[in-house]
Amino acid sequence: MKHIYQKGSNEEAPVLLLLHGTGGTETDLLPLAEMVSPGSSVLSVRGNVLENGMPRFFRRLSEGVFDEEDLILRTKELHDYLELASKEYDFDKKKVVALGYSNGANIAASLMFHYEGALKGAILHHPMVPRRGITLPALSDMPVFIAAGNNDPICPAAETNELTRMLEEAGAKVDNHWENYGHQLTRSEVEAAGTWFHRYFL
């Protein structure tokens, strides 16, 4: 997978797995990683799917309607890639925290939905519920930060609340952060993610 790996100065800090939104690239979220945990190593991956020339991590059938077959395939692809990358760059695959926005947040959530122990934690900016009707693996005390917008037309509050409930029922410790905006990333939610990350991991 096309990616950037940057070795950090703090080898005890978790590796940040950066997952961009639709139309983004592996460079988009690098400034967020610097704000959240400047000492962390960073693995930033570009989605392998193109939608009208825009990179994504999995196909969708329409706005908010995921192609579940492709989602499952691409989630496995990313999971397998993390194994390869941990060997290539010599980091502990059990100490990876995802930082994803929108489509990237959705595939990060899908990793948690499908693979026990795939992540040590996750920062999800404006995620949706990746799948319904499946049993999640145990997420025992996994810290998860979800940032959402009260006026987000793509990811309404009910979607955020449902995802929160599903993760908590699997054992995750979820912190929600709400902004009075739409689907865009805001500086204040990234700062809140940084405060949350320091509380749990540094």
From TrEMBL:
Protein name: Carboxylesterase
All copies of domain Dienelactone hydrolase, residue ranges: 78-183
GO molecular function: hydrolase activity
Organism whose genome encodes this protein: Peribacillus muralis
SUPFAM superfamilies for this protein: alpha/beta-Hydrolases
Pfam families on file: DLH
